[in-house]
Design brief:
The chain is an alpha/beta fold and 360 residues long. The chain contains twelve helices and 14 strands. Strands 11-12-8-7-6-13-14 form a seven-stranded mixed sheet, sandwiched between helices. A five-stranded mixed sheet has the order 1-3-2-4-5, sandwiched between helices. The chain has a two-stranded antiparallel sheet with strand order 9-10. A hairpin with a 2-residue loop joins strand 11 and strand 12. Helix 9 packs antiparallel against helix 10. It is globular.
C-alpha cells in the first residue's frame, strides 16, 4: 500500500513542526504543520519487516509531501520499539512521551481542547516512567506535563505477554490475590500449565505486576469461561461486550483508596457466577460506576471537570457510552475519539501535541 495522509486534524494551537512516530501496535506517524496535524494510515504492528518498511516510507512521504522540516521528534518511552530506535537515530531533539499521557492528549487535540484534562487511559500496556506495566491510569494532563493521580489495583500477569492471549491466566491471578490459589489447578484441569500456576504466582516467577484495564477485562473473561485461550488478543473482551444487554451494578463491587481503584470484590463475585450474560452485565455496569466515582473524586481534588477517554478499551461501545453518561450524571464532560481510534492508531497525534508544547 502506498503511503498516504489518512487524517488531518486542526489543533487548538499552532505548534513547531513535529514528527511523532507512534506506538508499536497499530502504528501511525504524525507530522504537524502550524495548527494542522497530518496522520498516516495504520501500518500494523512494528514487529514485521513489512510494517517497518511501511512506517519508514510514511515518514519520508509525509515530510516530503508537506514540505516540513521537523524541529523535534516525539516517541514512546519504551526503548525497544522500532519507532523509538528510529526516532533516536535522527539528528533531532527527541521528546519521550508517556503512552497514556499521549492517549489523553490525542483525545484533547482531536476535540480542540487546549487546557487541563483528566486523562482516563485504559488499554493493554504502556510503559510507565517507573518502568512498570501501566494500562489503567487516571492522569491530570496539561500540555507537556502530567501527574498520575491513580491507577487500577495491580494484578500479577503470569507468563508475561502470554496472558494477553490466555485470559485464564489473569483469572488465575485474581484467584491467587483472593487467597484461592488452590482452586487454579482444578478450575482449568485441561490446561497443563494450570497445575503449577499457583506455585508460579506464589513465587512471583515471570509474573510482572500490571495496572492494565485490558488484563482486568481478561480476568473477568477467564473467570466466566469466555475464551480461556483466545485466538487473538482482545477476542475474549469483545465477546464479553457482545453479551451485554443491560449493564448492572454490583453494590460494593469496588473500593478506592489513595487513588487506587480496586475491583477485586467484583472479580470475586464473577468467580462464583455461572451465567456469562449476567457476569458480563455485572462487569460492565460495575466498572462504569466505579470509573465514574473515581473520576468524580479526581475532579473534586483538581477542579478539572473534563475527562479524556483514551486507550483501546474505549473501542468498547458499552463502556464508552455508559461511562460518558455516568460522567455527565456527575457533572463532568467526557471527550471521546471521533474520527481517530482511541487506541494506538491515534497515539501519534497525542505524542505530537505533547512534544510540540515541550521545551527542547
Amino acid at each position: 500500500m502506498a503511503p498516504t495522509i489518512a487524517h488531518t486534524i486542526r489543533l487548538p494551537r499552532a505548534l513547531p513542526p513535529v514528527l511523532a512516530v507512534g506506538a508499536f501496535l497499530k502504528n501511525t506517524v504524525c507530522v504537524t504543520q502550524g495548527d494542522l496535524a497530518h496522520l498516516s494510515a495504520v501500518h500494523g504492528d512494528l514487529g514485521t519487516p513489512e510494517a517497518i518498511a511501511a512506517f519508514e516510507s510514511s515518514v519520508q512521504f509525509l515530510l516530503e509531501r508537506l514540505g516540513v522540516t521537523p524541529t523535534r521528534v516525539a516517541h514512546d518511552l519504551h526503548p525497544d520499539f522500532h519507532s523509538t530506535r528510529f526516532a533516536l537515530s535522527l539528528d533531532l531533539p527527541a521528546v519521550a512521551v508517556q503512552h497514556h499521557h499521549a492517549h489523553a492528549a490525542a483525545i484533547a487535540a482531536e476535540h480542540g481542547h487546549d487546557g487541563p484534562v483528566l486523562g482516563l487511559s485504559l488499554d493493554g500496556f504502556g510503559l510507565g516512567p517507573d518502568n512498570g506495566a501501566w494500562g489503567g491510569e487516571l492522569l491530570w494532563c496539561e500540555g507537556p506535563r502530567f501527574t498520575r493521580l491513580g491507577h487500577l489495583a495491580l494484578l500479577a500477569q503470569p507468563g508475561g505477554d502470554k496472558a494477553a492471549r490466555e485470559p485464564w491466566r489473569m483469572a488465575a491471578a485474581a484467584l491467587h490475590r483472593l487467597g484461592r490459589g488452590a482452586e487454579i489447578a482444578t478450575r482449568w484441569p485441561h490446561l497443563p500449565a494450570a497445575a503449577l500456576l499457583a506455585t508460579v504466582l506464589e513465587r512471583g516467577v515471570n509474573c510482572p505486576a500490571t495496572s492494565s484495564a485490558g488484563r482486568l477485562f481478561d480476568a473477568a473473561c477467564g473467570l466466566l469461561g469466555i475464551h480461556p485461550v483466545a485466538e487473538f488478543e482482545g477476542q475474549a473482551p469483545m465477546t464479553l461486550e457482545s453479551l451485554v444487554r443491560s449493564p448492572r451494578v454490583l453494590e460494593g463491587g469496588w473500593s478506592i483508596e489513595a487513588g487506587i481503584l480496586d475491583c477485586l470484590p467484583l472479580l470475586d463475585t464473577l468467580s462464583r457466577c455461572d451465567d456469562a450474560v449476567l457476569g458480563a452485565e455485572l462487569f460492565h455496569g460495575t466498572l462504569i460506576a466505579a470509573l465514574g466515582e473515581w473520576c468524580r473524586r479526581a475532579a473534586a481534588e483538581t477542579h478539572c471537570r473534563t475527562v479524556a477517554l483514551g486507550g483501546g478499551c474505549f473501542l468498547n461501545r458499552v463502556l464508552r457510552q455508559g461511562l460518558a453518561a455516568e460522567l455527565a450524571r456527575h457533572g463532568l464532560a467526557a471527550l471521546a475519539a471521533v474520527s481517530l481510534s482511541p487506541g494506538d492508531g491515534g497515539l501519534s497525534l497525542g505524542q505530537a501535541f505533547v512534544a510540540g508544547q515541550a521545551e527542547v
